[in-house]
Specification:
five-stranded mixed β-sheet, 3 domains, 37% helix, alpha+beta
Length: 382
């Protein structure tokens, strides 16, 4: 996925305008004006791509190298970014850890707060962008700022009312085997290589309470936290996709295996647009299966959803598969963190979508019949 993205980015940079194309052709015919590709390679490997490589160098990279050379370079780039995994198995580590590794910093200070204000713990669960402070969100939920204090041994602040605080660091070059652990999926997560937390100090309140939850086969405590996130995030999703009437992530789907989305369908292919849009969001990209239905479907009534979808789909026509990043706890994927996803268009089909047959009416009892039955029912003696 990353390799394709990088190549597409290079293509986009190479096609900015006709003048740029002429400049590259001149460079091809005159070696004296060609950028040093070895230097360009090293800049890509050593620094941040977006800020270091110029458009001219990117165009030259595309125009002056063969497909095989570009593929080998992308493989080298991937390994440089993921030195402990030739196939990118650990591509989705914490963003701060990745940034530290990218810039050559070998030690990341870390503090773990155990037992805090419920709003703080809830904010820590939210799928926020990496540069958005969870404490700001917690303050919003509490309607007052979160009091913070500096740690004893690391330059990190933690909530002042935390029950227990673990201070220490993570060595960005050290990985050790972790697992298996019982997880919220209901399975024991598989063993894998992860960063190591070295504890330098432990502080705590008098008679501290070790606050935790129990996870396992759903429903467990974490399911209700996930449902709260689902409800709170509905208005945010609707700002991104105004056509979304509602969505639901059933407990059995453990919040990354199944999302049911009801939309106001406005044009052909609208359901597929929503699938791909959701898969482009930071955390929702891990959703294994997205089911899209019309907005008159109650997404929280799984019996109604199944009835509508199973009646509305032609499997070959209405099921879409795509490859991409998957949740790290997905034990069924072909590779760690990489696998396939499925989208099901359970909406009514239109002629403009290639459906030429009549669409049947749903069997519904009229309001007059309902009132008549309500009047007769007491007299029937049933």
């Amino acid at each position: 996925m990353l390799r394709s993205f990088l190549l597409l980015g290079l293509v986009a940079l190479s096609c900015t305008n006709a003048v740029a194309q002429q400049q590259v052709r001149r460079a091809q015919s005159n070696p004296s004006v060609q950028p040093d590709l070895k230097t360009v390679y090293q800049k890509w490997l050593d620094e941040d791509v977006v800020y270091i490589i110029t458009a001219e160098e990117s165009r030259a990279f595309l125009m002056l190298t063969t497909d095989g050379e570009r593929e080998r370079f992308i493989e080298q780039f991937w390994r440089a970014r993921n030195p402990n995994s030739a196939t990118g198995d650990n591509a989705y580590r914490a963003e701060h850890y990745r940034r530290m590794t990218r810039h050559g910093r070998d030690r990341m200070p870390v503090a773990v707060a155990i037992g805090a204000d419920p709003a703080v713990m809830y904010a820590a669960l939210l799928p926020l962008p990496p540069d958005l402070d969870e404490m700001m969100i917690a303050g919003f939920l509490r309607e007052k700022p979160v009091e913070m204090v500096k740690c004893e041994t690391v330059d990190v602040e933690v909530p002042a009312n935390a029950e227990i605080v673990l201070e220490g660091y993570v060595d960005t070059e050290e990985l050790r085997a972790e697992g298996p652990f019982g997880d919220h999926t209901g399975y024991y997560s598989l063993e894998d290589e992860f960063p190591v937390f070295h504890v330098t100090c432990i502080t705590h309140r008098k008679k501290p309470i070790y606050q935790t939850i129990i996870v396992g086969k759903p429903p467990q405590e974490d399911c209700w936290m996930g449902e709260a996130i689902e409800r709170i995030y509905l208005p945010l999703m609707q700002r991104q996709f105004p056509e979304v009437a509602d969505y639901h992530m059933p407990f059995a789907g453990v919040f990354h295996n199944l999302m049911i989305v009801a939309i106001r369908k406005d044009y052909p292919g609208h359901a597929r647009k929503i699938m791909n849009g959701i898969w482009s969001l930071p955390q929702a990209m891990f959703t294994k299966c997205i089911v899209v239905v019309d907005n008159d479907t109650n997404v929280r009534d799984l019996n109604e959803v199944a009835w509508r979808v199973l009646n509305n789909i032609d499997p070959e026509r209405d099921i879409q598969f795509m490859a991409g990043p998957v949740d790290q706890l997905d034990h069924s994927s072909r590779l760690p963190n990489f696998g396939s996803k499925m989208g099901i268009d359970g909406t009514r089909k239109w002629k403009s979508e290639g459906f030429d047959r009549p669409w049947p009416k749903e069997i519904k009892m009229s309001e007059n019949v309902k009132r008549r039955i309500d009047q007769l029912w007491p007299k029937l003696g049933l």
